[in-house]
Amino acid sequence: MTKKQKKSIDLSMGGIMPRRLKTTKTIKMPNLTKSQQIRKLPVSKQKKTSGRSFGFAPSLAFIRSNVLYILTPLWILGLYLFAINDFPPAIAGDSTHALDFQHLSQINSIDFLPVKLFLAALAKLGINSQLSLRLLSVAIVFLSIFCFYKIVASWINKRAALLSVLLYSSTGWMLFQARQDTVSTMMFALMPVLLYFGIMAAETESLTLRILCGIVLAQLLFVPGGIWFMILAIIIGAVYEGRNFDIPSFAPAVISFIVTLAAYTGVIIGMLAVGYKTELLRLMGFFSGHLPALSTVKDNLLHLPSQLFYNGLADNSIWLHGTPVIDYVSLIFLITGLVYIIKNREDYSISRTVIGLFIILSLILIAINGPLSISIMVPVLYIAIAVGLSYIIEQWLVIFPSNPLARLFGIAVICASVFLVVGYQAERYFIGWPKTDEYHQIYKS
């Protein structure tokens, strides 16, 4: 048996089962050159393509092979939509945020402008309630999750993407963002949507998709600090693509981006006329509209590690205090992923640059604005978590390259830890938090 005929193990970042080589036959034609030879699959592998069957059996086989990819989005939607209009309840004596944007005259700031305009349009149609804004938040967060999955699946693999999406979508911080009636949910979508639609705008050959990418990316400009991430993404793309950076193919996205911003011109000019310095500072990432004091910057940075990995935010109107944004299991994956990315520059050259620079820029925004900017950093951290999760699976498969029981046991342990984290976060948010005295004082008084 030659080397080429031996089984090879797929150890490329999270490969789970051994990959069998497909035996092929090379039919050499006497009068053809080597480049003109025909590669032909074995007869047993060839399938007739006279028609496609849509019967019960093929559908059942598709469901079996994709059951996790079907159940995962259903589980996520269940988490976000369960009793969404009643939990958490509106704070007594306080108007809902959706009622704050019934007319254009009530929109007094330029940040998160697309969401505010959409709510004003709903009000014109007679749809104006707390539920409408919460459903809009769910839609934005779900878009963020979809883009996150596509990025991780393309950079690593689908298995790592699926497991990391479960962790990413079930964290208490994500549950808070998806189920609250606040316009700041766009911050969670900034990084995943920017990367996914930016890459698609550069790589797709469809003119329609390029125009769509430009329209979507234009909305991110109204996220405070979003302009810096967009500039950074363009610079990274230009540096790594070099001369291969196809400017003409990117032109439709740029044109649709400019046209979309022009459509906002009337509203933007009206707001800038009132206080253009404050509004410009908001867009640049200063939520309060002015520069913070140095003591505030220092406190924001000093409290960040505890907020991320230990106690979470000390705000009982958000969730159960003592629940970190990133749990301990995910923290192990995070450390592993960051160490792997730092040591293996060739494997993750572009993603290493993106993760590193985006984390630094997120830290600057957190230092200026406080914990609200954590929403921008969380997706970046969970990409590193996906790398660590995949690397741990890979190392287990290296130890047991041909023992199916040992391989299955290792994967089962990883999956079980992910499911336990998901259950832990859901229990803390839906069961533990409503039982606290602080929750009753805030929402039941």
Task: Outline the structure in words.
- With 445 residues, the chain is an all-alpha fold.
- The protein has 17 helices and two strands.
- The chain has a two-stranded antiparallel sheet with strand order 1-2.
- The longest helix has 29 residues, at 404-432.
- It starts with 24 loop residues before the first strand and ends with a helix.
- The relative contact order is 0.11.
The total strand number stands at 2
Instruction: Output the structural class.
Output: mainly alpha
Strand order of the largest sheet: 1-2
Q: Helix amount, in percent?
A: 55-70%
Average pLDDT, rounded to a whole number, is 78
Report the uncertain regions.
1-54, 92-96
Number of helices: 17
Our Rg estimate from Cα atoms comes to 25 Å
Largest sheet: 2 strands, antiparallel
Compile the SSE list and pairings.
Blueprint (H helix, E strand, L loop, with lengths): L24 E3 L10 E3 L15 H10 L1 H15 L31 H12 L5 H26 L2 H13 L1 H8 L6 H18 L3 H13 L6 H16 L5 H17 L1 H19 L10 H16 L18 H16 L5 H21 L4 H26 L4 H29 L4 H7 L2
Antiparallel strand pairs: 1-2
Helix pairs in contact: 2-5, 4-5, 4-6, 4-7, 5-15, 5-16, 7-8, 7-9, 7-15, 8-10, 9-14, 12-14, 13-15, 14-15, 15-16
Please describe the structure with a list of short key phrases separated by commas or semicolons.
mainly alpha, 445 residues, globular, two-stranded antiparallel ribbon
Structure summary:
This protein is mainly α and 445 residues long.
